[in-house]
Design brief:
Distance between the termini: 121 Å
Shape: elongated
Number of helices: 6
Helix content: over 70%
Structural class: mainly alpha
Radius of gyration: 44 Å
CATH class of one domain: Alpha Beta
Number of strands: 0
CATH superfamily of one domain: RNA polymerase subunit, RPB6/omega
Strand content: under 5%
Length: 155
């Protein structure tokens, strides 16, 4: 039955998206206690709203105004009462005290980090040079040992 109701409503409200918004507004009004202009027949509020629109029992322009007015109001904001505000203020004050006690350690600046990285790289390079010199000395020692063996062979 809902499909036939929508098809009947499109005659009065050609835009299906607008029809959905208007029917939803009327269904909310019905839930809030607005009087019905058609019999319920065990239908849900949305179907009743569509039937009312299809039969022309509700003024579509009134629904549009109510819809726009409801959209302009925005959501209802629940302001905290006086006791809740006192608790919130106390919690914020406590959070401020604990944050001061737990001050974060100072982190080195990017300049200090880059200087330390360069220094470490230079030390590493110097160590590599020393290792290379040591390796050259070992080669010389090996050559000297080889020369001693050949001298022993010749004697």
């Amino acid at each position: 039955m809902a499909r036939l109701t929508v098809e009947d409503c499109v005659i009065r409200v050609p835009n299906r998206f607008e029809l959905v918004m208007l029917a939803a507004r009327r269904a909310r009004d019905i839930v809030a206690g607005a009087s019905l202009t058609v019999e319920r027949d065990n239908d849900k509020d949305a179907v009743v709203a569509l039937r009312e629109i299809a039969e022309g029992k509700v003024d579509v322009d009134d629904l549009r105004r109510a819809l726009f007015q409801g959209l302009r109001q925005g959501p209802e904001i629940d302001e905290p009462d006086e006791e809740e505000m006192t608790l919130l203020t106390a919690e914020q004050a406590w959070a401020g005290i604990t944050q001061e006690r737990e001050a974060p350690e100072e982190t080195p600046s990017k300049e200090a980090e880059s200087a330390a990285d360069e220094e470490g790289a230079l030390e590493g390079a110097a160590g590599e040079e020393g290792a290379l010199e040591g390796a050259a000395g070992e080669e010389g020692a090996l050559e000297g040992a080889a020369g001693e063996e050949s001298a022993a062979d010749g004697a």
